[in-house]
Amino acid sequence: MMPLVAIVGRPNVGKSTLFNRLVGRRKAIVDDMPGVTRDRNYETVTRFETPFILIDTGGFEPVSEDRLLQQMREQSQLAMEEADVIIFLMDGRAGLTPSDVEVVEMLRRVKKPVFFVVNKVDGEKLENEAADFYTLGVGTLHTISAEHNRGVIDLMEEVVAALPKSSTRLDDEDITRIAVVGRPNVGKSSLVNRLLGFERVVANPTPGTTRDSVDTLFACNKKRYLLIDTAGIRRKGKTTQKLEKYSVVDSLRSIERADVVLIVINAEEGVTEQDERIAGYAFEAGKACIFVVNKWDTLAKDNSTLGKFVDQIKTEFKYLSFAPIVFVSAKSGQRINRVMEEVERVMAQYSKRVSTSDLNRVFSEAVEKHHAPLSHGRRVKFYFATQVGTKPPTFVLFTNQPEGVHFSYERYLMNKFREAFDFTGSPLKIIFRGRERRE
Ligand SMILES: Nc1nc2c(ncn2[C@@H]2O[C@H](COP(=O)(O)OP(=O)(O)OP(=O)(O)O)[C@@H](O)[C@H]2O)c(=O)[nH]1
Ligand SMILES: Nc1nc2c(ncn2[C@@H]2O[C@H](COP(=O)(O)OP(=O)(O)OP(=O)(O)O)[C@@H](O)[C@H]2O)c(=O)[nH]1
Question: Which one of 180, 183, 185, 235 would you pick to mutate in the ligand 2 pocket, going by the greatest count of ligand atoms within 8 A of its CB?
Fold first, then answer.
C-alpha cells in the first residue's frame, strides 16, 4: 500500500490550500473563514517520484482556545498514528501561537519524520517575519507559500525522500469503511454531518465542476472510520434527472468499497423500491448493513408507529432480518450516537473469528439436534467446520453432498452460529465443500 502523508495545523493556516495544490485540483471550500474545511480528506498524489496518500486533517470549529487545543491534540494524535510523514503547518502571517507551541511539543516526540512548515510566506521580504518560529528550536524550518506555489516543490522533494519504501497503513484491518446510501433527499448529507459532529456550511460547487470522490477519515471512541465518498453525498444541487441517476451508481460504487452500509430510509416515505435494490446489492456483496430510519421527528407517533416500521422493514428485507434498525433525526440529532454504536457493534462481529473447536462443537450439536433432510434419497453427512475468513465471517462446512444441502438447512445452521457466537447483526457466509472419502 501507498505511504501516507498528513497535513496538520490550526484552522486557517492553509492546509486545504496546500492539499489542493498537491492534489492538483481546485476546491470550493477553501475559505477565509476559520474551520471551513471540515473534512479530513484523503487523496492520492502521483506527481512525485513516490506516489503517496495525502490527508488533510483540517476541519474543526475553533469554539474556544481550550477546545481548539484539544481538537488539535486529537487531530495530531490521529495523524501521528496514521501517517508515515507529518507536515505541521503554521501561519507566517498570524505568527507563532500558543497552540502551535504545544503541538510542536507533541510532535517532537514522534518517531516519524515531521516537517515544520511556515506557510503564507509569499515573498522574500516576508522571510524575516518567520523569524519568530525559529524560537521553536525544531531544527529545519521550511517556509512556503501554498497559495503562490513558493517553496512547495522543494519541501515536497524532501517529504517524498522521507517516505518509507512501502507501507501497509491503509490496509489496516482496523479502519472501518462506511457507505451512506439512500434515495435523494432522505438526509444522507445531514446524517454525515451529524456523524462527523458538526453542522456544515455546504459550499455550492460552481457549475461544471468535476465531481470529486472524497473520503473522510474520522475517529470515534478511539476507533478509525472512513466515510466513503462524502463529496458525492454532500454534492448539492443535483436535481436534474441525469445526476439523480448517477446517485444510484455512486451508491453501488460506495457499497463495493464499504464494510458497513448505512441504508438511510426516509420515515415520511417508508421503504421504496430503490431502497430494496440498493439493500439487495449490499447484501449480495456480503456487506454489513444497518437501516437508519431518518426524519423520525416528522412522524406523529403512537404506540404502534415504531413496531409498524420495524415490521415493514423486516418484511421488505427478509434476507436482512439480522440488520439493526436505528430511528434517528439527523435534524435534531436524536439518537445519532446510536448509529455509531451499532456500527461498532456490528463491525466487531463482522471481523470476528471463532475458534475451530467452539465452531465444531456448535456445528455438531446443531446437526445432532436436526438432521439435514435427505438429498436424492441419501443422507447428508457433515464432517468438519472451519472459519476461512472474516468480513463477512465465512465458514467452510465439509459434507458428503455439497450440492445437496437444502437452503432452509443452511439458514438453520447460520442461525445456530449467529446465536452461539453473537453474530446477531452481521451477515455470514457458508460454503459447503465435498470431502475426499478416506477408506
Ligand atoms: N497569503 C497567503 N494566503 C494563504 C496561503 N495559503 C492559504 N492562504 C489563505 O489562508 C486562508 C485559509 O486557507 P485554508 O487552506 O482554507 O486553511 P485550512 O488550514 O485548510 O483551514 P481550515 O479549513 O480552517 O482547517 C485562505 O484564505 C487562503 O487563501 C499562502 O500561501 N499565502
Ligand atoms: N425533519 C427532518 N428533516 C430532515 C432530517 N434530515 C434531513 N432533513 C431535511 O431533508 C432535506 C434533505 O436532506 P439532505 O441531508 O440534503 O439529504 P440527502 O440525502 O443528502 O439529499 P441528496 O443530496 O438529494 O441526496 C433537507 O431539507 C434537510 O434539512 C431529519 O431528521 N428531520
Answer: 185
Count of domains observed in the chain: 3
- Examine the domain organization and report whether 166 and 202 are in the same domain: no
Question: Rounded to whole angstroms, how far apart are CA atoms 47 and 237?
Answer: 32
The predicted structure's pLDDT at residue 1? 60
Ligand 1 atom closest to the Cα of residue 122 is: 32
- The residue whose C-alpha atom lies closest to atom 2 belonging to ligand 2 is 295
43 and 113 both lie in a single domain: yes
- Domain identity same for 307 and 218: yes
Dihedral pair phi/psi, residue 25, rounded to 5°: -145, 165
What pTM value is reported for the model? 0.60
CB-ligand 2 contact for 83 (6 Å cutoff): no
Cα atoms in the 13 Å half-sphere on the side-chain side of 116 = 20
> Which ligand ends up closest to the CA of 265?
2
pLDDT for the residue 327: 96
ipTM of the complex: 0.56
User: Would the pLDDT of 266 be above 90?
Assistant: yes
CB atoms under 10 Å from CB of 32, counted, come to: 6
Q: Are residues 160 and 197 in the same domain?
A: no
Residue 159 alpha carbon to ligand 1 centre in Å: 20
- Which CATH number fits the domain that encloses residue 428? 3.30.300.20
Tell me the three cell numbers of residue 280: 439487495
Say yes or no: 96 and 129 in one domain: yes
